[in-house]
């Protein structure tokens, strides 16, 4: 049964995963079988008596391990979106075995000798390889050298041990974070404590309490509960309490404390980088990024900090002034006050509240709008399928078709928080895209976008806030990068691009959130059917740059923290909280609070692949502003510009250097000017 469930071919629509039939106990035998088959495939490559060639070595290696990759992908995706204690226990057993197998391949001397022979055969542009084949050869060779293939035997053993320790530490970091997030609740029984909160937030909290068998109202650390509470709750002490719970996660000296894991990961990564000949981990990671080196990252962060800091300081002064008007001249603005008083100032300036947007952002209508945007730009359509199995009742599956009607992809959407889902939002694949030219096969992708949006209640459907709309657009942009994938090799397909390029398609889509012509396509009042009025659209546009300086410096602070951890050239043995505070000090705008810590819950860095890469959000923001400027010049729905963006950016994956692809689309290299103009920093 397990072998049937996990295969390259299913008897399901579009060859999708048969989630209804999967049982947790099927994963282990399937992964072990995948490892066995992959070893056999590698042996066939290394035992081949023929001279190493691109076909019998590089392409053969690219095609190997598909069963293992498929099973591990399903397991990993469910571990993030629909996990359980039993699944996490199984992960602790299976992941070391997968890591050991991966290291066995990366450190296989016979395999690397063949890859190196092919690499040298085509060095300096010799031979008749296509651009994509050359890219695959370069990426394959680089992957092996960057994973220890050139190390001495003793160093290889150390590399193996460290990389397996790193993987397990990342797994534990994520488990602790999920348990801390799920383990807290603010239970309110006095109705007066709800002062200031919108009806939708109160209703959601009542629903949460009911689900937990409690009277009153329950607020959690999940974004749909935490964010509006911090923004609207009048009771300062309750804001402080919730803020402290959120910002001290995994610091309490118990089984979920992540401070030792942060130290462990920082030191493992440093040692891995130095084993491979790099000064620090950031230098190792950035070698295969658009930024190329730490100097470029710091240059970008410094440029942005210098440009935005004057605006940020003024924004903080304005919010502080309002707070003192309301609370007295001695009032000191603290981090748990920021969202609350910033929102009040925003209300005063624009005479409209963000909550007035919710009735016009009903999720079903938003879906129509976002899908319709892709139809208008690229001609693709989405057909909901009830035949495709899903992994949770809240998940929906769509078949995606191109302009001419041919099938492009499957898209899964998963919108609401639940205990088995980690926080945040992300896009992933259940199946990648690749082509078999001999059989004329184009294996189309199965893409998933996962979010944690405001849930429907007994009295109303899911009504999004504006940030949730932009998050939807962001993750949908990632999904288009996967849906439009059109390459021969899976490892170069879709979002398999440089980390500081991968956020361009997602952040590009966010630009449409403030465009009247887009909002008019879906933003109708969920009760009356009335279209969103002009004054609300004007508010969205006018307020889009509200506190943009503060927001930018906050992001730069995360980037500086990331770089501080990963540009170290010596082991860390200090106080995680103190080190973090020092790292973010150059852009700190509000008083620091003793005991709070981002690093211990910073999944992007310590369990999500963004180590030495968090700057990518700002890097890609420069790209997306520059790219959207062309759409603004030519018309935001211009079909020719959209076709060029699809052809040169969304379809090409990692088949060429991203700057080559970007220049081909834009006709020039990007500058920060478009971003500064969009944010009102530069007139």
Structure commentary:
54% of the residues lie in helices and 6% in strands. α2 packs antiparallel against α3. The chain is of the alpha+beta class. β7 (434-436) and β8 (441-443) form a beta hairpin. It has 27 helices and nine strands. The strands form three sheets. A five-stranded mixed β-sheet has the order 3-4-5-9-6. A two-stranded antiparallel ribbon has the order 1-2. Among the domains are: 2-106 and 108-150, Neurolysin, domain 3 (Orthogonal Bundle), CATH 1.10.1370.40; 184-247, no CATH class; 359-544, Neurolysin, domain 3 (Orthogonal Bundle), CATH 1.10.1370.40.
Summarize the biggest pleated sheet.
Answer: 5 strands, mixed
Q: Termini, distance in Å?
A: 64 Å
CATH level-1 class of the domain at 359-544: Mainly Alpha
Determine the fraction of residues in helical runs and give it as a percent range.
40-55%
Bulk shape: globular
Count of helical stretches: 27
Task: Provide the spatial order of strands within the biggest beta sheet.
Answer: 3-4-5-9-6
Q: Report mean pLDDT, rounded to a whole number.
A: 96
CATH architecture of the domain at 359-544: Orthogonal Bundle
Computed Rg:
25 Å
Detail the poorly predicted runs. Answer: none
Percent of residues in beta strands? 5-15%
Look at the helices and sheets and give the structural class. Answer: alpha+beta
CATH topology of the domain at 359-544: Neurolysin, domain 3
Please count the beta strands (DSSP E, at least 2 residues each): 9
């Amino acid at each position: 049964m397990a072998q049937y469930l996990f295969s390259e071919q299913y008897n399901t629509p579009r060859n999708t995963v048969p989630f209804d039939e999967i049982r947790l106990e099927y994963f282990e035998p399937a992964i072990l079988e995948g490892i066995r088959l992959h070893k056999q495939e590698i042996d066939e490559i290394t035992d081949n008596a023929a001279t190493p060639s691109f076909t019998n070595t590089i392409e053969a290696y690219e095609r190997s391990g598909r069963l293992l990759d498929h099973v591990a992908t399903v397991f990993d995706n469910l571990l993030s979106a629909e996990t359980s204690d039993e699944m996490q226990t199984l992960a602790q057993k299976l992941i070391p075995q997968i890591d050991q197998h991966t290291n066995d391949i990366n450190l296989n001397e016979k395999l690397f000798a063949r890859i190196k022979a092919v690499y040298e055969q085509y060095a300096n542009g010799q031979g008749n390889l296509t651009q994509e084949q050359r890219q695959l050869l370069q990426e394959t060779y680089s992957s092996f050298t960057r994973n220890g293939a050139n190390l001495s035997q003793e160093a290889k053993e150390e590399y193996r041990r460290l990389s397996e320790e790193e993987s397990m530490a990342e797994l534990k970091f994520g488990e602790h974070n999920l348990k801390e997030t799920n383990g807290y609740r603010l239970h309110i029984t006095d109705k007066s404590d709800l002062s200031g909160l919108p009806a939708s937030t109160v209703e959601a909290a009542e629903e949460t309490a009911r689900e937990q068998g409690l009277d009153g109202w329950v607020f959690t650390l999940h974004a749909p509960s935490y964010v509006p509470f911090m923004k609207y709750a009048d009771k300062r002490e309750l804001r402080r309490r919730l803020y402290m719970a959120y910002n001290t996660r995994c610091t309490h000296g118990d089984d979920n404390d992540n401070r030792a894991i942060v130290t462990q990961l920082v030191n493992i990564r440093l040692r891995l980088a130095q084993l491979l000949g790099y000064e620090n981990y950031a230098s190792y990671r950035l070698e295969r990024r658009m930024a190329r080196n730490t100097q470029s990252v710091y240059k970008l962060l410094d440029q942005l900090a210098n440009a935005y800091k004057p605006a940020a300081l003024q924004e903080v002064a304005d919010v502080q002034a309002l707070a003192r008007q309301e609370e007295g001249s001695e009032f000191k603005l603290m981090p748990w006050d920021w969202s609350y008083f910033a929102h009040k100032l925003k209300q005063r300036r624009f005479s409209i509240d963000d909550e007035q947007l919710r009735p016009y952002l009903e999720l079903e209508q938003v879906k129509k709008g976002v899908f319709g945007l892709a139809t208008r730009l690229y001609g693709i359509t989405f057909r909901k399928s009830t035949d495709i199995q899903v992994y949770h009742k809240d998940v929906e599956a769509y078949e995606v078709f191109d302009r001419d009607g041919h099938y492009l992809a499957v898209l899964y959407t998963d919108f609401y928080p639940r205990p088995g889902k980690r926080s945040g939002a992300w896009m992933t694949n259940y199946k990648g895209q690749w082509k078999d030219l001999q059989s004329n096969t184009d294996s189309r992708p199965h893409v998933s976008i996962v979010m944690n949006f405001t849930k429907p209640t007994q009295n109303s459907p899911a009504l999004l806030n504006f940030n949730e709309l932009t998050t939807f657009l962001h993750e949908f942009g990632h999904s288009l990068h996967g849906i439009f994938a059109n390459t021969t090799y899976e490892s170069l397909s879709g979002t398999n691009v440089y980390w500081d390029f991968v956020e361009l398609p997602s952040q590009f889509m966010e630009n449409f959130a403030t465009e009247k012509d887009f909002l008019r396509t879906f933003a109708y009042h969920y009760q009356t059917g009335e279209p969103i009025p002009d004054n609300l659209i004007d508010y969205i546009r006018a307020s889009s740059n509200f506190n943009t300086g503060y927001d930018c410096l906050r992001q730069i602070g995360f980037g500086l923290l990331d770089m501080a951890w990963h540009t170290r050239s010596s082991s860390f043995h200090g106080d995680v909280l103190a080190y973090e505070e020092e790292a973010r000090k150059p852009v700190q705008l509000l008083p620091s609070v003793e005991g709070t810590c981002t690093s211990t819950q910073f999944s992007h860095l310590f369990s999500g692949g963004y180590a030495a890469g968090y700057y990518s959000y700002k890097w890609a923001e420069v790209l997306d502003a520059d790219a959207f400027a062309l759409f603004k010049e030519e018309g935001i729905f211009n079909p020719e510009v959209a076709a060029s963006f699809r052809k040169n950016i969304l379809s090409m994956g990692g088949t060429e250097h991203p700057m080559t692809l970007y220049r081909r689309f834009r006709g020039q290299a990007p500058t920060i000017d478009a971003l500064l103009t969009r944010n009102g920093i530069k007139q």
